Amino acid sequence: MGQETVKTRRKPRADSLRNRELLLEAATHVFSTGGPQASLEAVARRAGVGIGTLYRHFPTREALFEAVYRHEVDHLADLAGLLSFEPDPVEALRQWLHANVRLVAAKKGMIQGLQLVAHGSSELKAYSFERLTEAVGLLLGRGVAAGELRADITPEDLLRTLLGIFYSQGTADWQPAALRLVDVFVDGLRKR
Amino acid sequence: MGQETVKTRRKPRADSLRNRELLLEAATHVFSTGGPQASLEAVARRAGVGIGTLYRHFPTREALFEAVYRHEVDHLADLAGLLSFEPDPVEALRQWLHANVRLVAAKKGMIQGLQLVAHGSSELKAYSFERLTEAVGLLLGRGVAAGELRADITPEDLLRTLLGIFYSQGTADWQPAALRLVDVFVDGLRKR
DNA sequence: TATTTATACGGAGGATGCCTCCGTTTATCA
DNA sequence: TGATAAACGGAGGCATCCTCCGTATAAATA
Fold first, then answer.
1. Closest chain B residue to the Cα of A37, Cα to Cα
2. Is any atom of nucleic acid chain D found less than 7 Å from the CB of residue A7?
3. Which of A89, A133, A136, B11 would bridge with A143, disulfide CB 3.0–4.6 Å?
4. Which of A54-63, A127-136, B182-191 has the lowest mean pLDDT?
5. Chain A within 8 Å of B170 (Cβ-Cβ)?
């Protein structure tokens, strides 16, 4: 009972799970440093596993990229959950948006990466859009409920604005400008 | 007299010029089909020259990419010149903008390519921005002079809007939507 | 606990691409 | 019609990609 499949299946091997996690961590680091075309063998080396193991878990570069992306999205979503306990709701939202900037900034290749992803499965797009919308909706809703934020901005608007800020910037030294723009935007969201 | 350099220099060899052109054509096709990471050897093969010749003309992938991009920009600029003889100025502008969409659509990797370029020399950015601004200014100016287009839109605004339309679209099947948006925009430009 | 077996592991190896180097070819110039 | 500067082609060394399969090991079973 409670078994998902009809046939009883062995539970996944512990080393498999561990290696998958190691690979994701390594990939995040390697892609951040070397851009999205970085060597997959370098990823395997850093994770301390054979190249075969990498390919078994992620048959293509895109599969690995998707997994990394999902990982990051989940990370941001979890962070929103944590920040929802922050006493000041506006500050919580601001911090979350800043985390977005930092996360994208941390990986030079991410903008190109996002485009690779955009070419890929629309299921992934739907998934990430949904999770991030939910995350930002949570933080936004708290601010609205507290009467501190205007109520006519949807989470989707906010997400799109964020993306727009990322895209509109020149690639060099864009981070400070993006952070400033985010702050301006959050200020604009305040009820007066 | 009339010689650019102090020392008299041989004029460039005919085969060199021809091969350069062949390579640019081949590169345009190969990058359009296979994206910006397509094999440079494939480019040389398609141009019917040795790989060494490719590298002599374009020492790096980026150099080749820049040259292709310049080539396309020049192409669009020339097209604007041609279209300026079209009797209906609004139609001319519309056609030029559509050509932009088609050109970007024709090469799947172009959006990523533009980002590569954005990382690259700002001289190239300046050059292309100038040429395209001039081109669109020509077409726009005719419409304004004929009293058919509103006068408060600058060529820069129009270019930026065009870029915005390209970026905001999802990558799959974006072309029809982009064409529609361009038409809407051109309609909006009309004086009423 | 000992044995079985499904599952995962590592890395050798063939294919392909990158880029350099240099002997050969050829277009220009005298 | 030479002489020669300039360009050509592609072999070769190295890196990466990805597959395949013999070996190792965690979970299941007795």
1. B37
2. no
3. A89
4. B182-191
5. yes
What is chain B's Cα-based Rg?
Answer: 19
Name which of B115, B167, B171 is nearest A112 (Cβ-Cβ): B115
Q: Cβ contacts (< 8 Å) between B170 and chain A: which residues?
A: 118, 125
Helix (H, G, I), strand (E, B) or coil at B149: strand
Place of tokens 């006068």: B151
Residue with structure tokens 């982009």? B178
With beta carbons under 8 A apart, name residues in chain B contacting A115.
111-112, 115, 171
Query: What is the distance between the alpha carbons of residues A48 and A60, in angstroms, rounded to a whole number?
Result: 19
CA distance B166 to chain A (A): 12
Q: Which residue from A112, A125, A167 is facing B112, i.e. has the nearest CB?
A: A112
Closest C-alpha among B172, B32, B168 to residue A124: B172
Note whether A73 and A54 are same-domain residues. no
Residues 6-65 of A with CB under 8 A from B: 37
Is A2 within the bounds of a domain? no
pLDDT 10s digits, B117-128: 455 566 777 788
Tokens coding A103: 């996360």
3-class SS letters over B98-134: HHHHHHHHHCCCHHHHHHHHHHCCHHHHHHHHHHHHH
Check residues A91 and B35 and name the one with the higher pLDDT.
A91
3-state DSSP call for residue B141?
helix
- Residue A155: predicted pLDDT: 83
Question: What is residue B105's predicted lDDT score, i.e. its pLDDT?
Answer: 60
Nearest protein residue to the C1' atom of D15, measured from CA: A39
Q: Print the domain residue range for B24.
A: 12-59
Q: State the nearest residue by CA to the C1' of C6.
A: A10
Of A59, A80, A96, the position where a domain reaches its end is A59
- Chain A residue whose CA is closest to B173: A119
Give A113-172 pLDDT, tens digit per residue.
Answer: 555 445 555 677 778 888 888 999 999 899 999 999 888 777 876 776 776 566 545 555
Q: Which residue of B has its CA nearest to A167?
A: B167
Q: Are residues A98 and A181 in the same domain?
A: yes
Most confident of the ranges A151-155, B140-144, B168-172: B140-144
Q: How far is the CA of A61 from the C1' of C15 (A)?
A: 18
The two three-digit tokens of residue B23, written as one number? 């390579």
